[in-house]
Design brief:
Helix 7 crosses helix 8. By secondary structure, the chain is an alpha/beta fold. Strands 1, 10, 11, 12, 13, 14, 15 and 16 form an 8-stranded mixed β-sheet that branches. The two termini are 13 Å apart. It has 10 helices and 16 strands. It folds into 2 domains: 236 residues, Alanine racemase (TIM Barrel), CATH 3.20.20.10; 116 residues, Lyase, Ornithine Decarboxylase, Chain A, domain 1, CATH 2.40.37. 47% of the residues are buried. Helix content is 30%, strand content 23%. The structure holds pyridoxal-5'-phosphate (PLP).
Length: 376
């Protein structure tokens, strides 16, 4: 929570739930990444928060952009990024979208199978491709599944296939899982990446780039290591697995760039119990899973929630959203400590909500308007 956000909420008093993003925090985070990993190019993962003001700021600071769709590519271009600063990093693309990206000047694409390599070879001839390898995501609070990537052994064949199809076999990518609290998580993936480099080199193909993905955490309830700790651990792992031939590197921070730049203001709509004997209070907010807090799915991400009563005695509460869908419960398995004095009509501030919130909010489920956002 920054003074700028506090002042904005106090002076503007926006009605209804809303997200406020402090662009100064995004700027500080960008500089922290550049400093911690000085030899890596930053490709901001646009999906984390595609607010035009966020993209424009990052473009001005010199960031590049990782996009997952033609629409995201257009947003990055509109923000001022040139096509050489944009990658099409989704491994699942329609061939006509590859062609549309190619027509816009995009020359770097992610693949994880020969079928996708063939699409790129047809629709974006000669483009650079990097192959995503599977990563076990151990320890990540928002792990990514086996949906993306292939085994390192298969990556060798995919990149050789791409090379033969006239593409520029550029490198390897991976993602260690989002909200990864362990800076050493990059080590195993970099070992696999090194193996792919060496095997392909024996086959006469010299890869040049490792895309280190995202995974850098935002601070929620628990403390997380600083970005510079990640930078050091990654550099150590690069040295270990690549020796003196350290490749070009890219990072794709999403959550770590914008997560702690945002605060959602919400309101307590109802506080009740389920029976006369029930000891647990249910606290219903005017925002829930469908209003932007989708990452509370399986109670994976636990946001810090501030109230005007902080410091008063607390009790464990169930927290739920306002819609008529029973899935719209945020925290129940592990109840959330909230002040006993918290009352209906009180405002609450949900911190660390700058990433993966606004674009997750439904258009009008139950008639609730999508989450409004203010970038200040
Ligand atoms: C979502 C995504 C990211 C961003 O991940 P964070 O954990 O939010 O930093 C980076 N790269 C790719 C390919 C992604 O899909």
């Amino acid at each position: 929570m920054t003074d700028r956000i506090r002042d904005f909420l106090r002076l503007r008093r926006p009605e209804g739930p809303c997200l406020v993003i402090d662009l100064d925090v995004v700027r500080e985070n960008y500089h922290a990444f550049s400093k911690a990993l000085p030899d890596s190019r930053v490709f901001y993962a646009v999906k984390a928060n595609p607010d035009p003001a966020v993209l424009k700021l990052l473009a001005e600071l010199g960031s590049s952009f990782d996009c997952a769709s033609v629409a995201e590519i257009d947003m990055a271009l509109a923000a001022g990024a040139t096509p050489d600063r944009i990658s099409f990093g989704n491994t699942i693309k329609k061939e006509r979208d590859v062609a549309a990206a190619f027509a816009r000047g995009i020359r770097m694409f992610a693949i994880d199978c020969v079928e996708e390599a063939d699409k790129i070879a047809r629709a974006a001839p000669g483009a650079r491709v990097f192959c995503r390898i599977l990563c076990d995501c151990v320890g990540a609070e928002w792990p990514l599944s086996r949906k993306f990537g292939c085994s390192p052994e298969m990556a060798v064949d995919v990149l050789e296939h791409a090379h033969r199809a006239g593409l520029d076999a550029y490198g390897v990518s991976f993602h260690v899982g989002s909200q990864q609290p362990n800076p050493k998580a990059w080590d195993i993936a970099l070992k696999s990446a090194g193996d792919v480099f060496r095997t392909l080199s024996e086959r006469g193909i010299q890869l040049r780039m490792v895309n280190l993905g995202g995974g850098f955490p935002a601070k929620y309830l628990r403390d997380v290591p600083a970005v510079k700790t990640y930078g050091r651990a990654i550099f150590t792992a690069l040295r270990k697995h690549f020796g003196n031939r350290i490749p070009e590197t890219i990072i794709e921070p999403g959550r770590g760039m914008v997560g702690d730049a945002g605060v959602i203001k919400a309101e307590v709509v109802l506080i009740s119990k389920k029976s006369a004997e029930d000891r647990q209070r249910w606290v219903y907010l005017d925002i829930g899973k469908f209003g932007g807090l989708a990452e509370t799915m399986d109670e994976a991400i636990r946001y810090p929630i501030r109230t005007a009563h902080d410091g008063d005695r607390t009790e464990p509460c169930v927290i739920a959203g306002p819609t008529c869908d029973s899935a719209d419960v945020l925290y129940e398995k592990t109840p959330y400590e909230l002040p006993i004095s918290l009352a209906i009509g009180d405002e609450v501030l949900i911190e660390g909500t700058g990433a993966y919130t606004q674009t997750y909010s439904a258009v009008a489920f139950n008639g609730f308007e999508p989450l409004r956002a203010y970038a200040i």
